[in-house]
Amino acid sequence: MTPGGAGHWPVAIGEAAARSHVSARMIRHYESLGLLPRVARTDSGYRQYTEADVHTLRFIRRARDLGFSIEEISALLGLWQDRSRASSQVKQIALRQVEKLEQRIAAMQDMQRSLQALVSSCHGDDRPECPILDELAS
Q1: In this predicted model, what pLDDT tens digit does every residue of 1-18 receive, in sequence order?
Q2: What angle do CA 101, 69, 67 make, to 5 degrees?
Q3: Which of 113, 119, 110, 112 is nearest to 131 (CA)?
Q4: Residue ranges per structural domain of the chain
């Protein structure tokens, strides 16, 4: 194997996992979902991944890191592989994800404010009274 991660193709699942930073378990899962096409197998049944497969796995991982759902990733993969696509389709999916993230951030900020108010109302001393527990129990 040469420096910089280059090497001989195809590679086994462990090497594909290391190169894509996707666990072997998730690689098998993505394959079962159809996000990754069925890969070639050796005579003894071991999966063999190509450089293109690893590139696809990196794409999936990055999309997951950005919070896209499996369905959205499937759509994005289809658009990525379709050279005649309109970029407006991709942008529309990404904009919907931005909106979902904004909603989640707002909800988390509301939770943070509520929890901060509860923390502020708790004396945090040796007494048993605790407004945090009272609120959770109500």
Answers
A1: 444 455 689 999 999 999
A2: 40
A3: 119
A4: 3-85
- pLDDT of 7: 64
CA–CA distance, 30 with 39 (Å, rounded to integer): 12
Q: Using CA atoms, how far apart are residues 77 and 59, in angstroms rounded to an integer?
A: 8
> Rounded to whole angstroms, how far apart are CA atoms 18 and 27?
11
CATH number listed for the domain at residues 3-85: 1.10.1660.10
What amino acid is encoded at 6 in this protein? A
Q: Identify residue 85 by its one-letter amino acid code.
A: R
Along the chain (138 residues), what's the average pLDDT of each consecutive run of 10 residues? 60 96 97 92 92 97 97 97 95 98 98 96 92 93
- Cα torsion through 111, 114, 119, 122, rounded to 10: -140
- What's the rounded Cα separation, in Å, for the pair 113 and 107? 10
